[in-house]
Amino acid sequence: MAWSPDKTEVKSWNEWDTLRHVIVGRADDCHIPPEEPALDAKVPEDSDMRGQWGRRPQETIDRANELLDNFADQLRKRDIKVDRPVSIDHAQPVTTPDFHTDSQFGCMPPRDVLLTVGREMLEATMSYRCRWFEYLNYRPLLKQYWEEDPRFRHEAAPKPRLTDADYHPDYLSEKIGDAKRLEWAAEKFFVTTEEEPLFDAADVLRFGKDLVVQHGFTTNLKGIEWLRRHFPDHRVHTVNFPGDPYPIHIDATFTPLRPGLIVNNPQRRLPEDQREMFNKNGWDIVDAAQPAHNTPPPLCYSSTWLSMNVLVLDPKTVCVEKSEVYQAEQMDKLGMEVVEVELRDAYAFGGGLHCCTADVYRDGDCEDYFP
Ligand code: NVA
Q: Which of 66, 99, 108, 296 has the fewest other C-beta atoms within 10 Å?
């Protein structure tokens, strides 16, 4: 049966089929969290974020919300249904029997927390203490989907304990330097240990029957094994991008646009020995265009490669951030219609166009693209 806006239905098997219903994050009450092991390891040593934390300035929250609201309206004008999270109070500290953090993070990048696979939405374990309760921002929506769609499966991965045993202390020394970080990334020595399963949803890309998962700072091998056991009808593939000294979240590194085509960050190329499934099935992996900016915006965790953090609306249409002119030009050459979206002033709140959304419904079924 065709999708109808009058009926809630959760279903999305991949990153590119026609998008009908989506969650767009909010910048409300977003905090720069206090220091903690996994977060510190991600913040580049020369970043303006080092050593400061607290609620983000209200004018930056307002500006980011303006852009996110406009993006939601742009999607609605294309007949895509848009839901928004309900912000909890992120100033609240979190204490569990195992850890304490003085504040939380926000509800801007739903993609980090929610993994939609078919008719299921799975709350990720997360790997930062400040993001342990982030799923609460989305609970009103997931509760509503569960009540309205009898086939919807609301799942939550086991909450991790996040004791100090989850983090390698080597990563916590002040100045490690990018050369050392790259060496460690190549050896697959990351800040997180194998103490317990850890994954962020944004380390996972969905290709129908296949899930491609980045092993890095925010997802460990046990997390990937947990996903493998949780989705027994899927093939779960582990990938690494050794050119990335801060490997978190796959969506500024590897971006599928449609069946057979992926853009890959040229500084973080997928190693040859991990390309077999794509090569064998005739997929093209092309270098992404250069970002239009030399530096990220102020107080931003992410790299300039948010240029390739695009949202595919259907196999011929893609949302690209308005200032990312080289990425837009490349998309055009690759045969995609480009929808320009202004979002750069919201990047600091947790990412770009892919990050700030989570799929609720895309057309299409679970296909095998790698037989
Ligand atoms: N690893 C990423 C996160 C972006 C979603 C980066 O390039 O900063």
A: 66
What DSSP string describes 125-150?
--SSGGGTTGGGGTHHHHHHHHHH-T
DSSP 326-367: HHHHHHHHTTPEEEEE--GGGGGGT-STTTTEEEEEESS---
Nearest ligand 1 atom to the CA of 248 is 1
- The protein residue with its alpha carbon nearest to ligand 1, atom 1, reads 248
Cβ–ligand 1 contact at 309 (below 6 Å): yes
d(CA 37, CA 39): 6
Cα 251 to chain centroid, rounded = 6
249 lines ligand 1 (CB under 6 A): yes
Ligand 1 atom closest to the CA of 202, numbered from 1: 5
Distance CA 215, CA 249 (A): 9
Q: Determine the atom of ligand 1 nearest the C-alpha atom of 296.
A: 8
Catalytically active residues are 200, 249, 355
Name the strand (E) or helix (H) holding 167: none
Q: What are the φ and ψ backbone dihedral angles of 85, each rounded to 5 degrees?
A: -70, 165
Per-residue pLDDT of the chain (371 residues; tens, 9 = 90+): 789 999 999 999 999 999 999 999 999 999 999 988 888 887 777 777 777 889 999 999 999 999 999 999 999 999 999 999 999 999 999 999 999 999 999 999 999 999 999 999 999 999 999 999 999 999 999 999 999 999 999 999 999 999 999 999 888 766 788 899 999 999 999 999 999 999 999 999 999 999 999 999 999 999 999 999 999 999 999 999 999 999 999 999 999 999 999 999 999 999 999 999 999 999 999 999 999 999 999 999 899 999 999 999 999 999 999 999 999 999 999 999 999 999 999 999 999 999 999 999 999 999 999 99
Q: How far is CA 74 from the centre of its chain?
A: 21
Supply 83's token pair: 């839901």
Task: Evaluate: CB of 304 within 6 angstroms of ligand 1.
Answer: no
Which domains, and CATH codes, for the chain? 19-362 (3.75.10.10)
Tokens of 345: 């002033």
From the CB of 137, is ligand 1 less than 6 Å away?
Answer: no
